[in-house]
Fold:
Amino acid sequence: MNLPKSVTICEVGMRDGLQIEERFVPTDEKIDSVNRLSKTGLRRIQVTSFVSPKAVPQLADASEVMAGIERRPGVVYSALVPNERGAHRALEAGVDELDTVLSASDTHNLANVNMTTAQSLDRMGGVMEIARRGGVPVVAGIATSFGCPFEGDVPHERLAWVVAGLADLGVAGICLADTTGMANPLQVQQIFRQLVPNYPHLAWSLHMHDTRSMGLAAILAAMEAGVTSFDASFGGLGGCPFAPGASGNVCTEDLVHCLESMGVETGVDLKMLVMTATRGEQAVGHPLRGQILRAGPSTRRYPVPDSVRERVSAR
Ligand code: COA
Ligand code: ZN
Structure:
């Protein structure tokens, strides 16, 4: 396999994860989770979103969370914003980067942010201007990049049109998002191979939901296409409230375990991350879906059963 020496993981559980949880996680617990995540070695954390509190009441405390967290040097703290209002609020709260969102498909964009994709692209100009004045970079997320739960296939020309529009606006990076886990690994690899050479100056990343268990495989396929930046969610939290059938992101612990076992550096302390995910289960009030949380790492060893111990030592 053609693997990179290291990758960057952006932890999105605090935003993508908590936005779909039934329980409102209290602000001090959110702050505690972000602080714990900061200590694991993660270099990018999407802390929250500055969206309408009516649309996503779970993250209505975005400003308070940003104000309460300890800022660890070297960690980029970002937030998701859908419009100019969100960009102003996020900058006031002191984010290091704005992560914008629009969907490649009109239907999901209308359900998510009440605009067509073209209208969202128009509004992005205002967001870019606010970011420029505030001196922070913009990473543009494209939801439903690989398929839409309402419309089905998203034609490549459509995705290419959105990417071109965002590149013209001067975004620093583009994150292709598989909002409801529709993408297969080959498709992900092909799309990156088609798009990246046209925009080599952009920071490309991939945001996979593991709805159909193809998340890790898609990340490996994207790495072979040269992508080295991936979103993931501790415990495997995640899901879009405006996309039917959405479920959790690729789990950060599972991704770190997979990559590190192949010698690809993530900079993340797996043990600390697992402990943070265990705390996360208490915060949301239900078990999380990460595999390493249950199975432990592959280096885990069990006591030899009495029934075979003698035979083993006699060998
Ligand atoms: N932050 C806080 N409030 C906001 C806001 C923002 N970024 N943008 C708009 N609002 C408020 C307006 O002030 C207005 O409030 P009011 O009803 O008290 O007057 C209300 O929201 C409606 O504003 P409007 O500009 O007409 O927006 P809309 O109703 O067309 O909704 C969005 C558009 C984008 C604000 C809304 O759809 C949204 O927040 N979506 C979030 C999607 C999301 O987070 N999805 C999951 C992540 S992908
Ligand atoms: Zn997502």
